[in-house]
Amino acid sequence: MEQLEGRVAFITGGASGIGLGMARAFLAEGMKVSLADWNPDHIAKAREALAGNNAVHFVRANVADRANLKAAVDETLAHFGKIHVLCNNAGVNGGGTAASPDFEDWDKALSVNLGGVVNGTKLVVPIIRAQGEGGHVVNTSSMAGVVPLPGLAAYSTAKYAVRGFSESLRIQLAEKGIGVSCLFPGATRTAMVPIPEDDPENIREEGAPQFLKDLWDAMREAVDPLDTGRAVVAAIKANRFYVFTNREFLDEVIERHREIEAAFPADEPTPGRMKFEQVRRELTRNLMAPGNRPVPVEGAADMALDLGSKSPAGGQ
Ligand SMILES: NC(=O)c1ccc[n+]([C@@H]2O[C@H](COP(=O)([O-])OP(=O)(O)OC[C@H]3O[C@@H](n4cnc5c(N)ncnc54)[C@H](O)[C@@H]3O)[C@@H](O)[C@H]2O)c1
């Protein structure tokens, strides 16, 4: 989408941090924004910060609750009439480790960080498609969806899944004229990782583990969420899928990709396997070329085959 002026964005987790940064960057482009958030304090603060701007609408919504999120989408449509840009951004920190016996934290982290992205997409993309004016979906993953932090298994699981979901969505929506971007923030100065200065009563530097102190230092020098919002605007305009904001991770990402390449077997694939891969690659190449306007590819509709729905009962 090259022209953003007058378009409507629906941003989950929009009342704080990166969501609010996107909202500000969108408003600067002349867009209208509906900010859906579950935290009433964040909504109150954001409302105050953006007071007097009638291109902003706030709605309380829990992305993990489909009926509740649908009500927020309906309210947005009633207020602005349309939605062109969907930002599935709401997220929560933590959620437990693979080793912990507690399932509740794990389920909650997955239901917000992954479920929220799926729910938002399934509710809003059909609306964008039906309008027929093009659009864009931005899903917030994390550097933890590329190079995981130790101890954040649930968070990383969800963020890797957001990336996989978004890659698939990108192929399916390209021919419909709807772009997809996936955002991978690293340290960004938001409410997600509070530092001692934010809450001196409860967060103390003395006696804290060195790993945490290093994290707080990184947070003191973290990316401004408004800059992240501007990076998202640029990605939407250029129809670019990957949005990275923190260059400090680049060397590790390169190392990881070399490790993946080195893990492939040396034996040549059979002709049948090779042919299928060539067909699959050809169908997706055009659609996934960075910066490309979506180009319909002959036979591309076949790529949308929902193999799961054809499985026998109980099958995967
Ligand atoms: N800040 C970082 O360093 C960082 C790094 C990587 C990824 N991220 C991701 O960025 C996204 C935004 O986080 P942020 O850093 O701006 O944090 P934030 O806490 O400032 O903002 C997140 C917002 O999401 C809202 N939210 C949480 N659960 C919700 C739910 N169930 N329904 C609706 N709203 C809900 C919160 O109320 C909050 O306003 C998250 O997905 C997060 O995982 C952040």
Task: Describe the fold and architecture.
The protein has 316 residues and is α/β, with parallel strands linked by helices. It has a single domain (8-188, 223-265), classed as Rossmann fold. It contains ten helices and seven strands. It has helices at residues 17-28, 40-49, 66-80, 104-113, 115-131, 153-174, 210-220, 225-238, 250-262, 271-288; strands at 8-12, 32-37, 56-60, 85-88, 135-140, 178-184, 242-244. The chain has a seven-stranded parallel sheet with strand order 3-2-1-4-5-6-7, with helices on both faces. The chain is globular and about 65 Å long. Residues 12-13, 15-19, 37-39, 42, 61-64, 89-92, 112, 116, 140, 142, 185, 187-188, 190-193 line the site of nicotinamide-adenine-dinucleotide.
Instruction: Give the termini separation.
Output: 36 Å
Structural class: alpha/beta
Give the full name of the CATH homologous superfamily.
NAD(P)-binding Rossmann-like Domain
Q: Biggest β-sheet: count, sense, barrel?
A: 7 strands, parallel
How many domains is the backbone divided into?
1
Mean pLDDT: 90
- Second rung of CATH, namely the architecture: 3-Layer(aba) Sandwich
Helix content: 40-55%
User: Strand arrangement, largest sheet?
Assistant: 3-2-1-4-5-6-7
- Tell me, what is the CATH class? Alpha Beta
Q: Extract low-pLDDT stretches.
A: 307-316
* CATH topological fold name: Rossmann fold
Number of beta strands: 7
Q: Helices and strands, in N-to-C order? A: EHEHEHEHHEHEHHEHH
Shape: globular
Radius of gyration: 20 Å
